[in-house]
Amino acid sequence: MIEILSPVELERAQDAGALVGRILQTVRDRCRVGTNLLEIDRWTKELIDDAGAVSCYVDYAPSFGSGPFGHYICTSVNDAVLHGLPRDYALADGDLLTLDLAVSLHRIVADSAVSFVVGQDAHPEDLAMIDATERALAAGIAAARPGAKVGDLSHAIGAVLTDAGYSVNTQFGGHGVGSTMHQDPHIANAGRPGRGYTLRPGLLLAIEPWVMADTDELVTDADGWTLRSATGARTAHSEHTVAITDDGARILTLRP
């Protein structure tokens, strides 16, 4: 399903995006060495509830997961890159943490992710990998305009990632959002320009480059949800929800 939002729905989408951005920034600011992933999940639930919003994750049970997710935010640490199930783990100095959040407000979904290093012991390789995903995200957003093809976005993202020396997994990537969290079109993080669905004003897209340091192969954790690099290598993931407008892409999930 691909939804094209009305002007009224786009106004609600801006509210949803702003909320996701605020929650992610609040949670990121609270993370310290010793913070437990389950504590992060509790903070997120409180912030969602206080806003009168609805979690897109807690009851989510897609084919690629193991039953309902049961938590409010994805917390992927080090070699975990996607769908990190919160668990009883205290963050250590130098951990590379990705927070990924999707929330529905006024029946419109926004989705965003941010990677960062906890504490002071940041490895240059980790910072470079985070930077590559953020630059790839910016390139994908710059390519997202009316009349562009999905393949144009994929090509722009993939060019940045491969130029930075990373191999790209295209199994999971960006996607449409709207009244539900995952919609068409799928936005692979590498592809050929001029291919795929033509973007139109009113379309919401979650664009999300992610990489693993030395592989493009994923393995599923024993929890049935968390996806990790097959080699145990570190990972990074950046994501924003954007609205396609007559003037290009408007980022809805900016963090204050």
Automatic annotation (TrEMBL):
InterPro entries (alphabetical): Creatinase/aminopeptidase-like, Pept_M24, Pept_M24_MAP, Pept_M24A_MAP1
UniProt signal peptide: none
Sequence positions that bind substrate: H83, H182
Gene3D superfamilies found in the cross-reference section: Creatinase/methionine aminopeptidase superfamily
Residues binding a divalent metal cation 1, per UniProt: D100, D111, E239
Cofactor entry: Co(2+); Zn(2+); Mn(2+); Fe(2+)
Single GO BP term: proteolysis
Enzyme nomenclature, EC number: 3.4.11.18
Subunit structure, as described in the record: Monomer.
Protein name per UniProt: Methionine aminopeptidase
Organism: Luteimicrobium xylanilyticum
Taxonomic path: Bacteria, Bacillati, Actinomycetota, Actinomycetes, Micrococcales
Gene behind this protein: map
